Structure formats: structure tokens, C-alpha cells
Amino acid sequence: MPSIDEQLTYLKKGLAEIIREEDLRERLVQAAQAVRPLRVKAGFDPTAPDLHLGHTVLLRKMKHFQDLGHTVIFLIGDMTSLIGDPTGRNITRPPMTREDINRNAETYRAQVFKILDPEKTEVRFNSEWLQPMRYEELVRLCGRYTVARILERAEFSKRFKDGVPISVHELLYPLAQAYDSVALRCDVEMGGTDQKFNLLVGREIQKDYGQPQQIVATVPLLEGLDGVNKMSKSLGNYIGITEPPEIMYRKVMQIGDALMFRYYELLTDRSLAQIDQMRARIAGGELHPMQAKAELARLIVTDFHSTADAARAEEEFNRVVRRHEVPADIQTVTLPEAVRTAAGIRIDKLLAKIGLADSVSDAVRKIKAGAVEIDGQRVHDLVLADAPAELIVHAGKNWRKVVL
Fold it and tell me: Rounded to an integer, what distance in angstroms lies between the CA atom of residue 15 and that of residue 255?
């Protein structure tokens, strides 16, 4: 077993903050002396059916606790989802239906074991203790915290100041999350930096219930493909962990060189020393950034698929993007009749009909920008007069085989 110092160094990599580090050290010592694993919890509200790489930053840190022999609790917030986490929101989040929650929760349960060890993971639902809670117990829980403290939260404070409505049920969210820690007797609770307020409420509520206060460990929010905004499916800047290997690989290769180092730190097991060495080799001209990014893409695809899948995805990327060859999985469509005219095929209408442009006007913009090719030739005109029986149409990163 590594020393306490070595364990702390391993656990601190990729963390934004530990509250408090000296408490974590002491808890690790106590656990070792009592031969008792720490109970480490992270909660996920099943608000969407699939997890993306942003979620896995937290899952990887949970795995690191598992590596050191501790018990990890993957908590599915099927009851807190009914409230809707107000974190980062300036309006009340519409509550989800129980059917949506249950459906998404099932997909989460299957996906997390791409990273976590199922033998060392407790999968729990907070409906176990929140649903049977009596009204009297809820009132007592609410009595352990003040409205003034909850209104210190940035989202609530701004909405209150701006006169934006705050529903009473939203005020219950941090208390419900805090009670999760009481019910599970957590030693450590993990979450994104945007969850810091909720995690600290958990410390206070545990103290009121006579339990040792949990250590709070936060992870950074992972930027998406745009390098600016938090990775999000709604923004379209995400890499889903269930996406096909070729798509995952291609998306990783899209990120900027500066963001690549952050992905190495938060999404791989490379040590900070190894990442710094790679950064120095790139700065010194010994290593091309594209090679380092390709290695990152292989590591990520391997984590969620396999080494063989990563090799195939790399070959497909090199073939299509670097050598400009036709993808192996190109979608075949039949030429829509609506694009035929007496003069020939209207290319702008064709692009819109087969999904290579959002609209006819978008298609015209792409043609004018030189972003459209047919059978390897850049398109300049809106009408294709003499068309063969089959066309290979390429716009941006997308392809279609069109059968006439």
C-alpha cells in the first residue's frame, strides 16, 4: 500500500480543491489504522440519457479512490432530479417526469462501469431515504439551515436581487443533497467546482446529525470542443462516452493544442510530470502537437472501447482527414426528386435535402466558401448539369453517397 503522502499526491492530481486537505490526510490515516475503507460519494442527477467526457473527470477521481481500496458510491439522484439542480441557472428548472428519470438512470448504471470497478462500487438511489421521509422529518431537516445561508448561493442571490422568482422547492435541493451524505455516512463527497456550495452544506448538516464532517473534493469543469464553454450536450461541444470510436477519435482531434494538455490531465492517468515533459518536448520541437493529440485520442477511445477500436478509428481519421479519402461508413441516400430541374441537379437544394446543410441558404454559403466537393472536385456552381449515376458529396466533415 502506498504511503499516506503518496496516496494524497495520487488523489490530488486533477482536483481543483480539497476542503480540507489536512482532514483528508487524517481520515486516510484513521482508515488505514482501522482497516476501514473510506466511503466516497458523488451524485449524478439523470437529466440526460448519456454521459459525456465532462462527467468522467469526476468518475476518474472516484476510480482513483477505488485504486487505493476505498468504497465508491455512485449516487443516482432520482429524487433530487424531481427538483432540478439550480446550479448555474437563472430560472427555475422544469421538473422531470418519473419516466424520464428512470429511463436515464438505467443508462447511467450501464455507462459508469466503463470506468468504475463494479466490484468496488455501490450504486444507490436517493429515493431510498428521501421518498419515505415523513413531513415531520422534512421540517426538522429544513430547521437545520437558514434561508439567509441558502440565499448566499450565487444563483439565488442574483435572482433575488433581480426580482427573478425562486420556487420554494429549489431551496430544498442543497438540503436534500446534504441529507444524502447523512444517509450514506460519507467520508468524502466529490463534485464539480460549481457544486461547492451544495457540498459544503453537506458538511454542516452532517455535523448537526452528529457525524464527522465529510471532506469536500471538487474537480474542474471540463471545457468542451470549443475550448470556452463547459462541455454540454445542449451546446453541441461534447464527446459522448457511448459514441462510436471513429466519432470520438475525430472529436478529440478537433480540440485546440492548449486544451489538449488539460484533457491529458483530467481524462488520462498520465502523471503531471509526464505531461510537463510532453509539453517541453513540443515546445522544443521534438514532438509535433498532432502526434501528442493522436496519442490522447487513442487513450480516450481505448478507455471506452478497446485498443483495436482505437487503431481502426485512427486509420479511418488518417484516411479521411489526412489523405482525403472517402469514409468507410459513408451514408447512402437516393437523390430527392425535388432537386431535379430541366437544367440539372440543384446542388444547394440537394445539400439541404440530404442533411449536409441546415437550409438552402446555408448550402449556398458553403458552396461560396468552397466547402463543398462532388466526386473530389470543388463545387462553384449551383447546378450540376451532367451527373453520373452515383455522386460522392462532401461538405465540411460530412459525406453522402447519392444514388441517382
Answer: 22
Burial of 127-157, coded b for 16+ CB within 10 Å and e otherwise, reads bebbeeeeeeeeeebeeebeeeebeebebbe
pLDDT at 37 over 90: yes
List the CATH number of the domain containing 295: 1.10.240.10
Q: Is 385 helix (H, G, I), strand (E, B) or coil?
A: coil
Compute the average pLDDT of residues 375-392: 81
Same domain as 274, residue 199 = no
What whole-number distance in Å separates Cα of residue 263 and Cα of residue 267? 5
Bridge partner residues of 192 (DSSP): 219
- The grid cell for 317 is 481519421
**Full domain range(s) for residue 249:** 245-322
Q: Are residues 214 and 360 in the same domain?
A: no
Q: Are residues 201 and 253 in the same domain?
A: no
The answer to whether position 239 is within a domain reads no
Sequence-distant (≥ 6) Cβ neighbours of residue 356 within 8 angstroms: 363, 366, 372, 393, 395, 396, 398, 400
Predicted pLDDT of residue 337: 82
Q: For the chain, give the number of residues.
A: 404
Q: How many structural domains comprise the chain?
A: 3
Half-sphere exposure of 368 (CA within 13 A, CB side): 6
Task: Give 50-77 pLDDT, tens digit per residue.
Answer: 789 999 999 999 999 999 999 999 999 8
